[in-house]
Specification:
By secondary structure, the chain is an alpha/beta fold. The chain contains 3 helices and 9 strands, in the order E-E-E-E-E-E-E-E-E-H-H-H. The strands form 2 sheets. It has a 5-stranded parallel beta sheet, covered by helices on one side. Strands 2-4-6-8 form a 4-stranded parallel beta sheet, with no helix packed on it. It is elongated and about 55 Å long. The two termini are 25 Å apart.
Length: 178
Amino acid sequence: FAVNAAGALGRVELEVTLGEGARFTLGAVTLGGGDSVREIVTRVTHAAPGGTSEQVVRAVHWGQGAGNFLGTVAVARGAQKTDAAQSFKGLLLERGAAAHAVPQLEIYADDVKCAHGATVGELDKQALFYMASRGMDPATAKTLLLKAFVAGVFDDVAQDDLRERFEAAALAKLGTLV
């Protein structure tokens, strides 16, 4: 798990090789404004049969900030029964912000399940309107939507105190926006 929100340039790079029956899970968030650039770069190699990997990356950017996800899943010739997934979602809070995803699959086995997906959008105006129509002030509504978007990345953290620390680190960065 990672929160990438420090400095003008931030990069988290992971290279993972999975053996037989191994499992890898990544939950990561990039957050930034101004002219910051945050990157999550991964290369997950399934070298043997039966491996499982899941990568969930969220990006929230504003100003001229950019969040990038460059993720490669490589499945070796003998790595049958591999199950791999990548998910990237970007949330742009202002015009000028950017989120880029470059998911890549390199598959050399034929009995595998591999998928990737990427979306980029803005805060749901209908959800904000709905919350306002129920008496919620705009700042609270925005905070709840941002928290829901980011917190889901850390759902698999087994220790409650550690999950709360990750969520608090991300929300502290977002707290200046509301």
